Amino acid sequence: MPIKRTLADRITDGINLFLLLLLSLVMLFPFYYITAVSFSSYEEFVNTDFLLFPKAWVLDAYRFIFDSKEFIRSIGVTVYITVVGSIVSLLLTSTMAFALIRKLWGQRFYLFLVLFTFIFGAGMIPTYLIVKATGLIDSYWSLIIPDAISAFNLIVMRQFFLSIPEELHEAAVIDGANDLQIYTRIILPLSKPALAAFGLFYAVGQWNTYFTAILYLNDPSKWTVQVILRQIVILDDTTNTLASAAREAARSAHLPPPETIGMAAIILATIPILIVYPFLQKHFAKGVMLGSVKG
Amino acid sequence: MAVTTPLSPEASNKSANVKAKAPTRSLATRLYRERYGFLLLLPGLVFFIWFRYVPMLGNIIAFEDYSPFRGFLHSDWVGFKHFARIFEDAEVIRVIGNTLWLSLLQIAFAFPIPIVLALMLNEVRNQRLKRLIQSVVYLPHFLSWVVVIGIVTIFLKTEGIVNKGLSLAFGMDSIQFLQEPGWFMPLIVLEVIWKEAGWGTIIFLAALAGVNPTLYEAAIVDGASRWRQIWHITLPAIRGTIIILLILRLGSVLDSGFTQIFLMLNPFTMDVGNVLDTFVYFKGIQQSDFSFGTAVGLFKGVVGLVLIVGVNRFAKKFGEEGVF
């Protein structure tokens, strides 16, 4: 039986929806504006007060970026750590999550070790010193290994594994399978959607790596795309080679100004996220709910 | 037949012997039987011990004059000297003040927004529209802080679109948003709201999805208006979730989100914007004052731990569930 809606109800609904759509526009506008300006020409950028709809769409800024070795190299580095890092993280997280559902000797203790890290962290400097002592400084592994397992993802993944019927494990044990075989033959094939979701989530984390890169990588030729992006967009000063070169070049040859180059760089650094976003959103919102409502 | 009866003295004696030996032997057999499980556990366990627990022990350098050349085993012990420095140093006091002020602003402004947003989304009847809006408001969560602050920088520059707009619409002089100390904290909070408000609604929406729809039907029969339904059914349904998240937030009042603040700081805003997290980085890593940096970090961690345990107990006393 449909419930009768009063006029007041409909007005409330209308205002509510209007506000939410307005909010959505606020969320989207920066993307639109930055995309639009990144495609505008030098003359139009300099001469227009309020550039919202570029008349001529040009690729100068993108061409400039693809000509600069620095940015392209940083993309390469980031792709590498994203791929390797996600695989390593997924492997370590899934094996441990699986081990934590098998009733191993001392299981509660291992679980406690993981959960305690939620409420007490070791601190930046001791962690830095351990990473240094491990010999990872200036190695790409420093961006992968020290944060390989997210305790939160681990717990959510364990929760997911627990939802797989235990009878399947038992049947496998009767057939003579050991834990290693249960993990590879039963758990992993049944968890493909979950693994894809966590893999994407780790991948986004790696793609966005900034802090660990400035902490552990001293060699600028190893910097990730986020570090280079900060140089181009946020610092935008003479100490940074790309932006000042851009300004010089722009002045002399009417090449793209640093502003549009910065915007193009933001777009390029964000595109991978936008591509995987539909998958991320669908799977991970569910995963977060699963993990959080339980707690 | 040669089968001994179960009650024969010899047999029962033997089984008693087996029982007495059982614990040690079964532990060994058990560990052997579970060896593949342990093989799978091992890499993760090593990770947690080496990168999470050994650094916790490494905090002892806060009680030393740590020298990287002598190592933490051979550096001189100085007791609480570095902790005393925390309270003697005017800069640290100011940094603690900034940290608390930022947390207060976050709890007052950024914390309630996802709740309001979740309530608003929950009222949308059109499911497709609701999902579309959700997709849009979740998106900024996946962007890096560099991208978010890059966008903010572009918008708020002297020649940026915001200043251009203000001057076209109101004839205002351009405002140096990024250099003006007064704008630092409001911008930090606004950025957090833009990036995380949508994502923060997920947990509340999950709680709301669990509400029994017959409650609403009953309320409508009783003549409750929309606002009454929200007040008496919807809000109580997410009360537990709100309190748990508030406890967690209070437990981390000294955490400020290193990356965001670090990226927003510049020489003009250092006095009002430097917080404990960034202070530890500048002192400990950039100036290599390892022991002092660690002392400040440990102070922060311990206060956070005490707060979270304390607030949790407090919540339980008032009949709430608490986190643990």
From TrEMBL, chain A:
**ABC transmembrane type-1 domain spans which residues?**
75-280
Tagged with keyword Transcription regulation: no
The record's subcellular locations are: Cell membrane
Say where the protein is mainly found: membrane
**GO annotations under biological process?**
transmembrane transport
The source's domain of life comes to Bacteria
Bilayer disposition of the protein: Multi-pass membrane protein
Membrane-spanning intervals of the chain: 14-34, 77-100, 109-131, 137-156, 195-217, 261-280
Keywords tagged on the record: Cell membrane, Membrane, Transmembrane, Transmembrane helix, Transport
What PANTHER family does the record point to?
A: ABC TRANSPORTER PERMEASE PROTEIN MG189-RELATED-RELATED (PTHR43744), POLYGALACTURONAN_RHAMNOGALACTURONAN TRANSPORT SYSTEM PERMEASE PROTEIN YTCP (PTHR43744:SF9)
Supply the name of the protein.
Carbohydrate ABC transporter permease
| Lineage of source species | Bacteria, Bacillati, Bacillota, Bacilli, Bacillales
From TrEMBL, chain B:
What Gene Ontology cellular component terms go with this record?
Answer: plasma membrane
Q: Which intervals of the chain form a coiled coil?
A: none
Question: Mind telling me which Pfam families this protein's record contains?
Answer: BPD_transp_1
CDD domains, per the entry? TM_PBP2
**What is the predominant subcellular site recorded for this chain?**
membrane
Task: List the transmembrane segments.
Answer: 36-53, 100-124, 136-156, 197-218, 290-311
Gene3D superfamilies xrefs: MetI-like
Q: How does it sit in the membrane?
A: Multi-pass membrane protein
Spell out the PROSITE patterns in the cross-references. ABC_TM1 (PS50928)
Which GO annotations describe the biological process of this protein?
A: transmembrane transport
Domain (ABC transmembrane type-1) spans 96-311
Q: Which UniProt keywords apply?
A: Membrane, Transmembrane, Transmembrane helix, Transport
Subcellular locations according to the entry = Cell membrane; Membrane
Q: List, alphabetically, the InterPro entries matched.
A: MetI-like, MetI-like_sf
**What does the sequence similarity comment in the record state about its family?**
Belongs to the binding-protein-dependent transport system permease family.
- Protein name as catalogued: Sugar ABC transporter permease
Organism name:
Paenibacillus albus
